[in-house]
Amino acid sequence: MARPYASGNSQNTTTPFLTITQLAQKHELFRPFSSHINEQHQHIPTTSSNEALYSLATKIAEDSYQITLNEAFAIANSILKPTKKTIKKHSKKHVFPLVTDYFLQEPAFVSVATMPSTGWNIVTVIPLSEATKVSERLISALSLSIAVIMLIAIILAGLLLKRIYADPLKELMENLKQYINKENVDSFIDMKHQGEFGELAHWFNQRTNELLATQEQVNSLAFYDPLTGLPNRKMLKIHIDKKLASAQKNKTCGAIIFLDLDHFKVLNDSLGHDIGDQLLIEFRKRLDLCLRKGDLAGRLGGDEFVIVLSLPAFKNHNRTKIPSAIAKQILSSLTEPFLLKGNMYHITASIGIALFDEHSSSTEDILKYADSAMYHSKSNGRNTYCFFENGMQIKADQRLRIEKDLRHAIDNDGLSLAFQPQLPTDNKCPSLEVLVRWIHPKEGFISPLDFISIAEESMLILTLGDWVIKNTCKQMKEWEKQGIIFDHVSINISPIQFQQVSFVHHLANTIKDSDVRPEQVMIELTEGVIIDNPDRVVEKINRLKEMGIRVSIDDFGTGYSSLSYLKKLPLDELKIDRSFIQEITNDHSDVVITETIIAMAKNFGYTVIAEGVETVEQKEILISKGCQFFQGFLFSKPLPPNEIPKYLKSLTPSSDFDIHLDHEF
Q1: Fewer beta carbons under 10 A from the terminal one: N or C of the chain?
Q2: Phi/psi at 133 (nearest 5 deg)?
Q3: Mean pLDDT throughout 204-210?
Q4: Residue 165 and residue 299: Cα distance in Å, rounded?
Q5: Is residue 593 a contact partner of residue 627, using CB atoms and an 8 Å limit?
Q6: 335 near 268, Cβ under 8 Å?
């Protein structure tokens, strides 16, 4: 029986196939098989009484293309007749390899099964083409199954990879984008991830912590003063901008306090920056105690501080109440000295205050107004405060213009020297005091009282002082070549200049380079120099004396010198301040003070000179009290260098100390 053949039977004239009987007639191979079928057929009932036999025979005939119904009955009878035991015992099956079928003329798979008892061989022939179709269908089904399985595996693997790699990688990329765009630099990656990504997440989080720490340091450096920890200029401007915008929007008001520590530069340069820095730190602590909650203090730089105040909606006459109270409290906090490295230091402050409201223009203008008020406080004697007034800005602008022009004059020889004689009672071998003069190309003569203080505040005094010393020594050498004889030349030294660490060394080098005799040089210092650091002053003066340079205390009696330190100073001269000389003919107290200074100087072995002597009466009183040297318009005004030789030669010794010249300035 072979299913793949076309349907048909022995009566079908269209079928190309042969029955078993026909096959037996054509080839002897099939004759025994055909005879056996015919023999068995004679004993098989052809009725339908045996339903099982009939059903099986019919099925065999229908499903086979080369077996007639009679042949099918014979086959069915052979199948149903033996028992299961017989089938198991006698059944045999043979499978032949792929061969070329005789009738099909194409390769086919052949299977032969031997039936029990009858010995029938049931041959199944499957053409290769049909088998291939089955295989193709099987392969196709198998391929589809494999494809579905692979697709499912890929999807599952993708989901797994997404969870293990893609999700953390995406999270990492998002964090990196935020870093680059600076949207969120404090984000961290979930540490649930394990393996390489867990390590990468850990590394990323560690770098995030480091970046946050670095960013905090950068912000601190960008907006805060590293020494005091206060907001710096940039942060102050941002804060004032906000306060000003709020005032303009809400019609409120506020105040800016501009504070400058008096003579801080002198202390910082003379005692060292470590002392200066420590003082600023300690001052910040005191400043904090003077402020209210919500007030902001910042450091502009150096010794300049700014305080931003928010004020209630007071009427105009009440707006100064709170700023005044805070300014007074700050000044009061400075009355106590600072203990720095075992030594006590005193310092004061000058304060300027500017108010602002909804009509104020800009942060720069408000700061400029407060700065102008602060300089007005300095001009009023320091250690005080004042509020900005419109006229102050004019003075502040003038101050800035003078500072600029003075700098230009120093750099371009726009200054000159003048020398005022200092005469002894016998007119023998007078001395000179050098004074600096500035003839402005537009303003004309500008008094030293107007530009020396500006030079000190701007630190131009260092450059100006060096210029004066250098040119004085040069002029002294010129006079020496001309044979001009004088006892010494006095040079005023600013406290800022004297307290420079290199002052003594620099002065010594200038004198040496000019080839001037050191004993002909006298420096004049104010009493304030001694107050700041007496021990250091004594050490410097001793070094100067060792080189032969003389030292004088200028304006003596106006400061607060301690007599205990005065006796330690190796001085050469005390100069009585002109304030005592001006009223000496009318005020007995001035006579007593002058007489006391002269007596004390003699006891210490110092010479005494009175400055500002303008009348004969003043001169006679001074002589009667024992004064030895005189300086003032009664004798001579300050003279240019080219007039000094003529003036000195005109002097004639006189026991009566006659007045040689009486110039008006």
Answers
A1: C
A2: -60, -40
A3: 70
A4: 52
A5: no
A6: no
The pLDDT, as a whole number, for residue 5 is 36
Residues 6+ apart with CB under 8 A from 25: none
| Backbone phi, psi, residue 345, to 5° | -130, 135
Work out the angle between the directed axes of helices 31-42 and 69-80 (0-180°, nearest 10): 80
CA distance 392 to 398: 10
User: Tens digits of per-residue pLDDT, 303-318?
Assistant: 999 999 988 765 555 7
- pLDDT tier for residue 72 given thresholds of 50, 70 and 90: confident
Token pair for residue 195? Answer: 């393996």
* Whole-angstrom distance, CA of residue 247 vs CA of residue 96: 110
Tell me which DSSP letter residue 165 carries: I
Residue 3: the pLDDT is 37
Q: Match 């014979």 to its residue by tokens.
A: 74
pLDDT tens per residue, range 435-454? 999 999 988 999 998 899 88
Is residue 386 within a helix (H) or strand (E), and if so which, with residue range?
strand 385-387
- Determine the Cα angle at 622 with ends 618 and 623, to 5°: 120
Structure tokens at 284: 């910040």
420 falls in which pLDDT band (50, 70, 90)?
very high
CA dist 178 and 183 (Å) reads 5
Whole-number Å distance between alpha carbons of 34 and 41? 10
* Lookup: tokens for 652: 């004639």
Cα distances (angstroms) measured from residue 292 to each of 305, 318, 319 = 16, 18, 16
What count of other Cβ atoms lies within 10 Å of the Cβ of residue 317? 7
